[in-house]
Design goal:
By secondary structure, the protein is α/β, with parallel strands linked by helices. It has two domains: 2-166, Rossmann fold (3-Layer(aba) Sandwich); 184-338, 3-Layer(aba) Sandwich (Rossmann fold). Helix content is 40%, strand content 16%. Helix 12 (293-304) runs antiparallel to helix 13 (313-325). The chain is globular, with a radius of gyration of 22 Å.
């Protein structure tokens, strides 16, 4: 049986038999909701119910430990792209979607589960009650993304910690370089950006990750004053905002031509100047709180300030996919991501 021993760490469990005892090492982590979670070491079987969090596992070099995983935008194996199968040859075996099932999770014998606290807090409580440690993440800012990598890495071992530290260095290098290069811009000189959702009249609020990326790339979101999640607005409001650039996420049905060719949008500055762009996607969507969002910042700088970016997007894209995903981009994928 397992019993807490006075004087030992709260996360050190000792296993007793009639004649011997052995220590089961654990580490204590504080997740992004403030919960203290005891995680067994080593973690060899990992589940991620958090679609963004799954990509944290890849970035930390621990994808081979996934026994069950949700992925952003993949609601079935038929929705998976060819690059996803190249990234994850076991995708058909480990892919899950929809609401998590307690019985199936137990059957997979996961030693640690990652969840989105805003959606799966009740599920996390269930799994914790059943003795399966569950880390809850709340990531809606770049700082929270960095915190998520710092949180997860120690649970996955020294190599994961090294990989997390390398990513954090890259993240700070990129964002600092962009900030310093654009620091001379006055507020009125910064590009005013509208970020759309899966409908041309849905826009990102000031509380959302997309707004933080726009800011990191030296722009200003025209819908920053809105709160909550995706907001429904009317065309009159968009006409009043009159953005310089309109961005479309790499998911949903909206295409630049839907806006550029629509007669009702023609008086908007971004449309007149043909500055309506859909973000590219090879693996994860770069506008969401995944590590690839770092590339989203660099891509946005190229869109906002053509020819003035302090970074080479092609170099950074190749570095990221090779270093953090172990994925070699094809020439076609590289051209697609860089717009070349």
């Amino acid at each position: 049986m397992k019993r807490h021993i006075p004087g030992l760490s709260g996360c050190l469990l000792v296993l007793f038999s009639l004649t011997t005892w052995t220590a089961e090492p654990m580490i204590e982590l504080v997740d992004q909701t403030g919960n203290i979670v005891c995680v067994p070491q080593p973690v060899e079987r990992l589940a991620s119910v958090y679609g963004a969090g799954t990509f944290y596992v890849y970035t930390l070099g621990a994808a081979d430990r996934l026994v069950m995983a949700w992925y952003i935008g993949i609601k079935g194996i038929s929705h998976a792209s060819a690059p996803m199968f190249r990234l994850e040859p076991r995708l058909e075996e480990i892919l899950s979607f929809g609401d998590p099932n307690v019985e199936e999770m137990i059957a997979r014998e996961a030693q640690l589960i990652l969840v989105d606290a805003s959606r799966h807090a009740a599920f996390a409580d269930q799994m914790n009650d059943l003795g399966v440690p569950t880390l809850q993440f709340l990531v809606e800012t770049p700082e929270a993304l960095k915190g998520a990598l710092r949180l997860l890495a120690p649970a996955l071992g020294d190599e994961a910690v090294e990989q997390a530290n390398a990513f954090l260095v890259d993240y700070d290098r990129v964002t600092t370089t962009v900030r310093d290069a654009l620091s001379h811009l006055a507020d009125e000189e910064r590009v005013r950006v509208l970020f759309l959702g899966t409908d041309s009249l849905k826009v990102a609020s000031g509380d959302m990750y997309q707004t933080r990326l726009i800011e990191a790339a030296g722009g200003a979101s025209v819908s920053e004053g809105l709160t909550g999640y995706w907001n429904e607005v009317n065309l009159e409001q968009i006409l009043l905002w009159n953005p310089d650039v309109i961005l479309i996420p790499p998911y949903g049905a909206v295409q630049p031509s839907d806006i550029l060719d629509h007669p009702d949008w023609q008086s908007i500055r971004a449309v007149r100047n043909e500055r309506v762009h859909r973000m590219p996607r090879v693996i994860a969507p770069m506008d969401t709180p995944v590590p690839e969002s770092l590339l989203g910042v660099i891509w946005m700088v190229d869109i906002f300030y053509p020819g003035k970016s302090p970074l080479d997007l092609a170099v950074e894209v190749n570095h990221f996919y090779t270093t953090y995903y172990g994925y070699t981009l094809s020439p076609e994928e590289l051209a697609y991501l860089t717009g070349s």
